[in-house]
Amino acid sequence: ICTHIFCAQTISYLQKKYNFTAITAAIITDYTCAPFWEETCLNYYFIPHKDLITEFVKKGLDKNKILSFGLPVHSKFKCNYTKSELKKELNLNPNMKHILIMGGSMGAGNLLETTLELSNKLLNVEFTVICGHNNDLFEKLKREDLSKNVNLLSFSDSIDKLMDISDILITKPGGLTSTEAMVKNLPIILINPIPGVESANCNFFTSHNMALSSNSIDETIRLCELILKDSTISKELLLSQQKNINSNAADNIANFLLNEITE
């Protein structure tokens, strides 16, 4: 099972050269057909959504090998915690709204300025900022005169709990992080997409009304205020997420492949 194009290319080459009989599969982790998937030759391609089938077929993949089971996430994202108890555990104010700001595992994007502007403008909101493995960003933020309402973290393995206590997630449109948040049913504002698969992800999520996108810090602030004030906006986003995201994708894929092995 491959989750990256390089692995899929390697397995495809080995399969052609040595003609081994293993069942091979790819799990596509973005909401688009990235370049070079058409150069691979696996048994199955599990894609995140049925509306992507046409794009993959146009790129040259066999429609009979494409299965739109969804993007699998860790089972912990299917667990729900009591928000008030979690906030107490994390020393956060149970009476304040909470916004989670992430830049992926590498802390990419303009998180420094975004954090400073949002924390200075949204005074009745608490923020948790995840810097990931970006130690430079973490140290820069530590040196800033941050408001008391900013909780600064480096890498965290409790993203599922932080999503549970949050009212909004602000993040770059990575396929996996966005899907994890949607399984958690969390309103998302997408910022700083890297041109290519991330911009395609952003377009897919916004066109299906699963997330909002922002092109500036001022717009991000406006969208945060809008979501926090108008519950109908959140409800529409969450309904679209529930309609389009399969939280059981991991189980469905595993069961399918186990059945194939048995047969």
Would you kindly provide a brief summary of this structure?
The chain has 263 residues and is α/β, with parallel strands linked by helices.
What does this structure look like?
The chain contains eleven helices and nine strands. It has helices at residues 5-18, 53-58, 83-89, 111-121, 135-143, 159-164, 175-183, 197-207, 217-229, 231-244, 249-262, and strands at residues 25-27, 44-46, 66-67, 97-102, 125-130, 150-153, 168-171, 188-190, 212-213. With 263 residues, the chain is α/β, with parallel strands linked by helices. The strands form two sheets. It has a six-stranded parallel β-sheet, with helices on both faces. A three-stranded parallel β-sheet has the order 1-2-3, with no helix packed on it. Helix 9 (217-229) crosses helix 10. It is 43% helix and 13% strand.
Structural key phrases:
elongated, three-stranded parallel beta sheet, 11 helices, alpha/beta
Major beta sheet, specifics? 6 strands, parallel
Number of helices: 11
The chain-level structural class is alpha/beta
Beta-strand residue percentage: 5-15%
Bulk shape: elongated
Question: How many strand segments?
Answer: 9
Q: What's the gyration radius in Å?
A: 20 Å
Overall mean pLDDT stands at 92
Low-confidence stretches: none
Strand order of the largest sheet: 6-5-4-7-8-9
What is the terminal separation in angstroms? 18 Å
* N to C succession of SSEs: HEEHEHEHEHEHEHEHEHHH
Q: How helix-rich are the residues, as a percent range?
A: 40-55%
SSE layout and pairing:
Blueprint: H1 5-18, E1 25-27, E2 44-46, H2 53-58, E3 66-67, H3 83-89, E4 97-102, H4 111-121, E5 125-130, H5 135-143, E6 150-153, H6 159-164, E7 168-171, H7 175-183, E8 188-190, H8 197-207, E9 212-213, H9 217-229, H10 231-244, H11 249-262
Helix pairs in contact: 9-10
